[in-house]
């Protein structure tokens, strides 16, 4: 594969049997990153310290998802989910949801991102209007509070403007840049700046974050 | 700390997801860099994926071999039947040669037919063996089970 080239969004689920080992490696990496996002949303770790229930890691989840797809235990419905990466991420979400339900069901919100069209078939829910995305939906309440605290205390005007854009469903960096009439680089920099600040805060013990 | 307003949680949730890396819109190099930044070692998981791919390839190959054997079997049986008709008196040695030659690439089937052949004692038995082959083929059964 040419450096910088990406397979994301280009491959249909019907091509799954024709993927090369190298393509699978790339999908595995993307699935691992996606799993790490879900872990962060659940408060299951931050940099250098990702552990879910039973010590499971994002890489474990992504590998388990690939195994289930290759073994035919998870199959896709091309009509409901034509692209491969969203399907694979759906399997990852489903597995995280299972671990989540087994670990701390009392403290979590449900993850309704996957419904089953048949036995063993995870299917992406099609969102209508302003429904929360799967990732938004599983963020722990104390992490939501932490987001609010960082943004408010920080007083970063651009971040606050971005928050207002997001609240109005303007979610793509390019759209936000156009709406705010700023360079997209400023949006990307603000995104990274805030991400690093959030990581620092979330690296603290959970009790400290809540206090 | 005062109880936060839950009514505006949505926009803060959106901010949380906004700052997380989007694996669908990143190049592979960016994904790898982010994984390194997060301190996630992908090697153990990748090893599991490689093992799963090897298992899957082996399984696909086995299925393909089985399908190929099934597709080839009727023609092999037809050739045996034709040859037996032209051989005149059927003997064990002749049939053994035929099985050896016709099933040289199919050791399981060959072994099954040899076992059956060894248990025969007359020309009628030998003809019966050919009939069995034809009947089994018609029933679409695995030749590996012949004579068991």
Q: From the helix content, strand content and strand pairing of chain B, which structural class follows?
A: mainly alpha
Alpha-beta content class of chain A: mainly alpha
Q: Enumerate the spans of chain B where pLDDT stays under 50 for 5 or more consecutive residues.
A: 1-5, 140-148
User: DSSP helix count of chain B?
Assistant: 6
Helix content of chain A: 55-70%
The overall average pLDDT of chain A, rounded, is 77
Describe the strand arrangement of the main beta sheet of chain A, using strand numbers: 1-2
Number of discrete helical segments of chain A: 9
Mean pLDDT of chain B: 76
Uncertain segments of chain A: 1-5, 105-110, 112-116, 125-129, 205-211
Distance between the termini of chain B: 78 Å
Query: What's the number of extended β-strand segments of chain A?
Result: 4
Q: Multimeric state of these chains?
A: heterodimer
């Amino acid at each position: 594969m040419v450096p910088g080239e990406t397979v994301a969004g280009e491959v249909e689920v019907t091509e799954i049997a024709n993927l090369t080992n190298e393509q699978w490696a790339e999908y595995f990496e993307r699935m691992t990153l996606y799993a790490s996002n879900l872990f962060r949303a659940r408060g299951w770790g931050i940099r250098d310290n990702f552990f879910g229930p039973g010590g499971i890691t994002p890489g474990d989840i992504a590998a388990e998802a690939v195994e289930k797809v290759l073994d035919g235990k998870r199959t896709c419905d091309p009509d409901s989910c034509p692209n491969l990466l969203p399907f694979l991420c759906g399997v990852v979400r489903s597995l995280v949801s299972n671990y989540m339900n087994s670990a701390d069901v009392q403290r979590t919100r449900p993850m309704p991102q996957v419904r089953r069209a048949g036995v063993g078939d995870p299917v992406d829910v099609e969102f209508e209007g302003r429904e929360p995305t799967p990732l938004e939906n599983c963020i722990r309440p104390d992490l939501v509070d932490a987001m609010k605290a960082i943004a408010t205390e920080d007083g970063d005007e651009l971040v606050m403007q971005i928050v207002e854009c997001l609240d109005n469903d303007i979610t793509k960096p390019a759209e936000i840049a156009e709406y705010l009439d700023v360079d997209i680089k400023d949006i990307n920099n603000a995104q990274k700046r805030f991400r690093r600040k959030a990581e620092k805060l979330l690296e603290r013990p959970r009790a400290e974050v809540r206090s | 700390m005062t109880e936060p307003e839950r009514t505006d949680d949505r926009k803060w949730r959106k901010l949380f997801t906004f700052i997380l890396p989007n694996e669908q819109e990143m190049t592979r190099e960016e994904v790898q860099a982010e994984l390194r930044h997060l301190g996630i070692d992908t090697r153990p998981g990748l090893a599991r994926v490689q093992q799963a791919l090897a298992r899957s390839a082996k399984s696909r190959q086995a299925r393909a071999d089985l399908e190929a054997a099934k597709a080839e079997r009727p023609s092999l049986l037809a050739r045996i039947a034709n040859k037996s008709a032209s051989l005149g008196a059927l003997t064990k040695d002749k049939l053994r040669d035929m099985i050896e030659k016709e099933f040289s690439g199919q050791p399981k089937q060959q072994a099954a037919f040899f076992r059956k052949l060894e248990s025969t004692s007359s020309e009628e038995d030998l003809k019966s063996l050919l009939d069995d082959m034809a009947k089994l083929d018609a029933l679409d059964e695995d030749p590996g089970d012949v004579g068991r």
